[in-house]
Amino acid sequence: MAVTPVPGRPAPRQAAQADPVGAPRGRLRPGSVARGAAWTLAAAVPLAFLAVFFAWPVAALVGRGFWLDGALDLGGFAEVFAETRTWRIIGITLAQAAAGTVLSVLLGVPGAYVLYRCTFRGRTFARGLVTVPFVLPTVVVGVAFRAVLAPGGPLGFLGLDQTFAAIVMALVFFNYSVVVRTVGGLWERLDPRAEQAARALGASPARAFRTVTLPALAPAIASAASIVFLFCAAAFGIVLVLGPTGYGTVETEIYVQTTQFLDLRAAAVLSVVQLVVVSGALLAANRTRARREQALALMPEASAGRPLRARRDAASLAVTVAVVLGLLALPIGTLVARSLRASDGAWTLDNYRNLATTGGRNALSVTVWEAAAISLRTAAVAAVVAVTVGVLVALVVSRRPRARSGRRALALLDSVFMLPLGVSAVTVGFGFLITLDRPLGLDVDLRTSGLLVPLAQAVVAVPLVVRVILPVLRAIDPRLREAAGTLGAPPGRVLATVDLPVMLRPLGLAIGFAFATSLGEFGATSFLARPESATLPVVIYRLIGKPGPENYGMALAASVVLALVTATVMMLAERLRGQGAGEL
């Protein structure tokens, strides 16, 4: 018998309960099967993409190192770890990652306060400017710091060229915005009344920050530190360009063992070591991110902030200005200036005119402008693939099932799609070459097609798309979806009316990150791009390795072009971001 609701009384219990996507529980509705199939398909597509273009190539390369004469042989671990060189490389990698992480956090927290807690004219522009270094190609970052630290550069007197300190400085340059955006995104949502109450009770500004604000920011700081550690440990282009002779990390050692010595056994062992380190960083990031999101649920969406005052905010302002001008702007400014100088010191545009040539002694197979066009086409295809896969992942992971097993499964899915950020790009690239000749038995050789490089770049860009979109989708009150479903809206209608309007706000930023990341990807592309289809980062690295001032001047000019294109993309994406976009 139907139950008629009585005005003023709660609705019957069974009518109020709904599943995460809006279907009432208690009996199987006709649309529940279709709904379940739709979400299964939404999860299956990105999982299939990850399996074919990431897990399979990586497993194939690692397997070749451990599968000898038709049998599993793990003796490579003993051989590789018996070498003193291995432990030195692991030590350098961990030291480099730890130093880069600590400095990024120490310098990034004051920047997060100035750019997200305070208000001033030009703040949006400053936020976009700080973001640019993170998406600059690592090769460009390496060239810029060489221009600054080399003899004759602005900081050449420090003698830091080709040193460990130079690499750490470049890593901080690259990862500063990760800390600023992650910590700042939480800081602007903190309720200021708690800190104000502590001040009213007599606490000094420093004590109020230490006892009230810092504990609230701790989850975001830990999450940012975990991600920065991952990026620093897996750095490739920066170490390759700035590292001194004989200097190596796990990432570059995999490259050396694979390309120079053809020792897949040692490369496989080092890939496993790197995967363990990455998994640990992702586990820490996942736990701290969960704490962060729980805290955000209790706070307003964003606080208005307070006007920036030179006297009150002197320390934070001084650190931020010093970092922005000295660490961020100086390398880029020096790069531009050096690109406009001839070898004799005269100002000239010859380096830019030479971009229409193949360099001194035909150092290249294509001109720099042709490589730029190839890069743009490749990045456009990669961005389409990455955004499509990333949006599907974000939609699935943003669901909130009631069952603990379901929540754990989604958390695992989220972590799995972060793995490409930390696994060796060299491993992925070489794995592509040995697996994608006839993938899944299809009569097509992807290695000779134009899709190989875009697919490899998309694998790297997908995690960034997920990280931008996912926080916004998770901020949606699940009761909105439940109400729409209870009123009879099918799953597609729920997505279109509840999720899509909110997701559109960070979608522009996600597209920008995907395009810029693909534009500057170097590790896997250096393996896969043929000489006649080389992308701009590969061309720049080849010019650096060729003798002659003409080739080096072209490398500087090409780096400026690539940096300018990347910065333009990110500035446009930042303007399209809108309020409420996700943070890295």
Question: How many domains, in number, for the residues?
Answer: 2
Strand content: under 5%
Q: What name does the CATH topology of the largest domain carry?
A: MetI-like fold
Determine the N-to-C terminus distance. Answer: 52 Å
* Helix count from the secondary structure assignment: 23
Provide the succession of SSEs.
HHEEHHEHHHHHHHHEHHHHHHHHHHH
Low-confidence segments: 1-28, 295-300
Main beta-sheet annotation: 2 strands, antiparallel
Estimate the helix proportion, in percent.
Answer: 55-70%
CATH superfamily of the largest domain: MetI-like
Characterise the protein shown here.
The chain has 23 helices and 4 strands. With about 575 residues, it is mainly α. The protein folds into 2 domains: about 280 residues, Orthogonal Bundle (MetI-like fold); about 250 residues, MetI-like fold. It has a two-stranded antiparallel sheet with strand order 1-2. A two-stranded parallel ribbon has the order 3-4. β1 and β2 form a beta hairpin. Belongs to the binding-protein-dependent transport system permease family. Its main location: membrane. Keywords: Cell inner membrane, Cell membrane, Membrane, Transmembrane, Transmembrane helix, Transport.
Summary tags:
584 residues, mainly alpha, MetI-like fold, 2 domains, two-stranded antiparallel ribbon, two-stranded parallel sheet, 4 strands, 1% strand, globular, disordered N terminus
Brief overview:
The protein has 584 residues and is an all-alpha fold. It is built from 23 helices and 4 strands. A hairpin with a 2-residue loop joins strand 1 and strand 2.
